[in-house]
Amino acid sequence: MATPRSANGFDTDPLKSYGYQTRATHRAFDRMLQRQIGKHDVSNGFWYLLRVLWGREGMSQRELADEANLTESTTVLMLAAMGRAGLVRKRRDATDKRRSNVFLTAKARRMKPKLLHYAAYVNAIAARGIDTRDLETYLRVARQMRDNLSSYVEETP
């Protein structure tokens, strides 16, 4: 049976949609990762912020939101929950009192090896049976698509 096409020629088959496949793959990663990190009372939302903060502490909430690709309002809510969980603390910026800078607690730092192990485990499952060259191509193509979409959004009002 022929694949349905819209009036403009777009193939409506989800199996041929870059966006649909990316979202479905992301959801599969999220579900698998949550099964692992949930053992430590860490949500996927916490995970995205922890990954950024393990690389660089002391950034502002806005910088953290940008780095984690989250909205600032979502980041504020997430940081409040992470603060209650004992994972982060905020301090006023010494030079700009309007800004709060975010720092990990010792508890969050201690979680890093275990949680990164889970991420590696999930990636290994996802990559099972796929040639290394194909994985490298996937990463290159996914980055280029993200860059294309990001630059278009930035250029278009």
Short description:
63% of the residues lie in helices and 6% in strands. It is mainly α. A hairpin with a 7-residue loop joins strand 1 and strand 2.
At the first level of CATH, the class of the domain at 41-129 is: Mainly Alpha
The helix/strand order is HHHHEEHH
The helicity comes to 55-70%
Largest sheet: 2 strands, antiparallel
Distance between the termini: 40 Å
- Which runs of at least 5 residues are low in confidence (pLDDT < 50)? none
Q: What's the number of helices?
A: 6
**Any idea what the CATH architecture of the domain at 41-129 is?**
Orthogonal Bundle
Summed over residues and divided by their number, the pLDDT gives a mean of 91
Q: Structural class given helices, strands, pairing?
A: mainly alpha
The CATH topology name of the domain at 41-129 reads: Arc Repressor Mutant, subunit A
- Rg, nearest Å: 19 Å
Strand order of the largest sheet: 1-2
**How would you sum up the global shape?**
globular
Total strand segments: 2
CATH superfamily of the domain at 41-129: Winged helix-like DNA-binding domain superfamily/Winged helix DNA-binding domain
Beta-strand content: 5-15%
Task: Give structural notes.
- The chain has 157 residues and is mainly α.
- It has a domain at 41-129: Winged helix-like DNA-binding domain superfamily/Winged helix DNA-binding domain (Arc Repressor Mutant, subunit A), CATH 1.10.10.
- Helices cover 63% and strands 6% of the residues.
- The protein has six helices and two strands; from the N terminus they run ααααββαα.
- The protein has helices at residues 18-37, 44-55, 61-68, 72-84, 106-127, 132-155; strands spanning 88-92, 100-104.
- Strands 1-2 form a two-stranded antiparallel ribbon.
- A hairpin with a 7-residue loop joins strand 1 and strand 2.
- Helix 3 packs across helix 4 (72-84).
- It is globular, with a radius of gyration of 19 Å.
- The model has no long low-confidence stretch (mean pLDDT 91).
